[in-house]
Amino acid sequence: MKLRDIAVNNLRRRKAKVFFLVAGLLVGVASVVALMTTTRILEEDIAHKMDEFGANIIITPRSEGLSLTYGGLSLGGLSFDLKEMSEDDAAKITTIKNSENIRYVSPKLFGVFENRGHKALAVGVDFDAELEMKKWWKITGQPPKAEDDVLVGKEAAEKFRVAPGDTLDIKGKTFKVAGVLHPTGSQDDGLVFISLPVSQQLFDKPGKVGMIEVAALCHNCPIAEIVTQISEALPAAKVTAVQQVVEGRMDTLHNFRKFSLGISGLILMVGSMVVFVTMMGSVTERTREIGIFSAIGFRRSHIMRIILLEAFVVSLIAGVVGYASGIGATRVLLSFLTDKVPHFSLDPIVPVGAVFLSIVIGLTASLYPAMAASRMDPSEALRTL
User: Fold this and answer.
1) Could you give the CA distance from residue 282 to residue 275 in angstroms, rounded to a whole number?
2) Are 49 and 341 in contact (CB under 8 A)?
3) CB burial class (10 A; 0-12, 13-18, 19+) of residue 77?
4) Which of 100, 173, 243, 360 is 20 to 30 A away from residue 291, measured at CA?
5) What is the residue extent of each domain of the chain?
6) 136 CB burial (10 A radius; 0-12, 13-18, 19+)
7) What confidence category does residue 382 fall into, taking pLDDT thresholds of 50, 70 and 90?
8) How many angstroms separate the CA atoms of 113 and 118, rounded?
């Protein structure tokens, strides 16, 4: 009879002990799989949601001109009377090494106009990019679609007394108010947004832009490297990362990761202790059996292999069932942790890692009991007969 047959037969005779061993490892593996998978999915979901908060890199011309505050940021060197960047500069951003991390590029051109005795700031934008970048915007009316459509901030709409469907004159050209922004609490409330090509024509600045906003932070996105690469691509521009946004996002993801690793380590330690105690108890109960093996010529290595083979089989079963249980628990956890369960993607490395981890823990925890069994004195063991 081969050693593996002896190990399998021992497991069949001790179904209750096997069930306890599998359950001990299964809980640990399932918990780790559920926690790590849940954390990964939540990290991706949080990163995706935070990426929708808007730009985190601001690009302005290097200039000694007047400063302008936009969106709560002080953007030095931006002046309507000084030179602006060009649309070609915006295109260069998509050619950097980490261009796959660039989500949106939104060039802007600023111009001052007067209407009904009030001055206001008109901002030429690419509406497709701007609306994608600022998903929190709520609009009364419709987003601009035609070239002569404008989007008016709440304060500007009240100042000029316009509503969706009305007209607004800017620099002698009549525009249709497609929509009015709900109050945002930012400088957007006092702005009038028009199409970028129209603003370039209106303010006689063809192909020019005054500022470029970039949304570049994604999951584990190298924001510092991106800033450096954009600076190299645009040597005449000033590239600034919004540090508070970047640090806040990275800290959130880092804390999630540390929490999952700490809890996972604790659970694995408890699981390994369960296996160790159970295997030591099993060796003690099988004193007579081990004594007989030694008496009929089994070597120490043979006895160790029998114990470790049993641990291997139990660990393999626990790893497979634990992975399946962990994925099921992940779905349940996500339903409680999020209002809407995010896209659920399975990482092919996780099942392999779960089984491997279960086997390593099982064999490591069973190594000392196996050595104790192999060192057992046959004469002492046979006295129990």
Assistant:
1) 10
2) no
3) middle
4) 360
5) 3-48+250-382, 56-241
6) exposed
7) low
8) 8
